[in-house]
Amino acid sequence: MVIIVGCSHPGVDRLTETLLDVSGYEKAHLVIGGFHYPSRRTLDKLTRMTEFIAPAHCSGDEAKVYVRKNYPGKFVEVKTGTIIEL
User: Fold this and answer.
1) How far is the C-alpha of 61 from the C-alpha of 79, rounded, in Å?
2) Could you read off the pLDDT of 2-28 as tens digits, one per residue?
3) Does 86 score more than 90 pLDDT?
4) Please, where are the H alpha helices in 1-86?
5) How many angstroms separate the CA atoms of 71 and 76, rounded?
6) In whole angstroms, what is the distance from residue 71 CA to residue 15 CA?
7) Distance CA 6, CA 47 (A)
8) Beta strands of 1-79 (E only): which ranges?
9) CB-based contacts of 62: which residues, under 8 Å, 6+ apart?
10) pTM above 0.85, yes or no
11) How many H-runs (helices) and E-runs (strands) does the chain carry?
């Protein structure tokens, strides 16, 4: 399962959790998109629900640095024009 989010005002962790519950999947392969300046707690929770995380747009630099530093095996850098092969 690949989850693509926009500006995740309700919380990227809550959106991901809901999609996993509805789909029956235990874990998402990738969550990508705007995470709307998530807290570290939200990012920590997200890492338990997905194999890879690609914070973009309104995730903010702080979120990108946090995931890259604390979860380097899960971090996927994305920007305009990035191609991700699944």
Assistant:
1) 12
2) 999 999 988 999 999 999 999 999 999
3) no
4) 12-23, 40-49, 61-70
5) 10
6) 20
7) 18
8) 2-5, 28-34, 50-56
9) 37
10) yes
11) 3, 3
* Residue 74, both tokens: 């899960």
82 C-beta neighbours (distance < 10 Å), count: 11
Q: Which positions ≥6 away from 20 have C-beta within 8 Å?
A: 1, 26, 27, 28, 49
Query: Distances in Å between the alpha carbon of 16 and those of 9, 59, 67, 83?
Result: 13, 15, 17, 22
Count the Cβ atoms, other than its own, within 10 Å of residue 26: 8
pLDDT digits (tens, 9 = 90+) for 25-80: 999 999 999 999 999 999 999 999 999 999 998 999 999 999 999 999 999 999 98
Supply 34's token pair: 């705007």
Q: Which amino acid is it at 85? A: E
